[in-house]
Amino acid sequence: MPLDPAIRSLIGQFRKSPEWDEFLDLELLQKLLPSLVGEQLADVMRVTAIYGSKLVVDVPDKIWRKQLSQMKPRLVKHINELWGIDRITDIQFNV
Q1: 32-63 burial by CB neighbour count: b if 16+ within 10 A, else e?
Q2: Euclidean distance between CA atoms 41 and 68, whole angstroms
Q3: Which DSSP helix (H) or strand (E) runs through 84?
Q4: Are 53 and 85 in contact (CB under 8 A)?
Q5: Confidence band of 1 (pLDDT split at 50, 70, 90)
Q6: Which domains does the chain have, with CATH numbers?
Q7: Angle between helices 72-80 and 62-70 (to 10 degrees)
Q8: pTM of the predicted structure, to 2 decimals
């Protein structure tokens, strides 16, 4: 589900602010995850951290970890729509 270009533009402008930091990236992603990956997937994913370009996500069980791991390239693409750049290159799924 593509993110509205106007919202992406605003995010890009805010990220240039000296007050912006990685914690705001994390909070923004946590809030907008349903818009990026869909409500159903967002309901089973809990974004817990961003380390460099790696996103850390908690999932309920090994079955979800396996399913989401297979979807990783598509998830990375959708998540990066938030920033308009390749901010995230990998996702680590933890049970």
Answers
A1: bbebbbeeebbeebebeebeeeebbbbbeeee
A2: 9
A3: none
A4: no
A5: low
A6: 5-94 (3.30.300.180)
A7: 70
A8: 0.86
Q: What DSSP assignment string belongs to 35-71?
A: HHH-HHHHHH-EEEEEETTEEEEE-SSHHHHHHHHHT
Q: Write the pLDDT tens digit of every residue in 11-67.
A: 888 888 888 888 899 999 999 999 999 999 999 999 999 999 999 999 999 999 999
Which of helix, strand or coil describes residue 17? coil
Q: 47 φ, ψ to 5°?
A: -70, 120
Residue carrying the six token digits 């460099």: 52
Confidence of residue 10 (pLDDT cuts 50, 70, 90): confident
Helix (H, G, I), strand (E, B) or coil at 32: helix
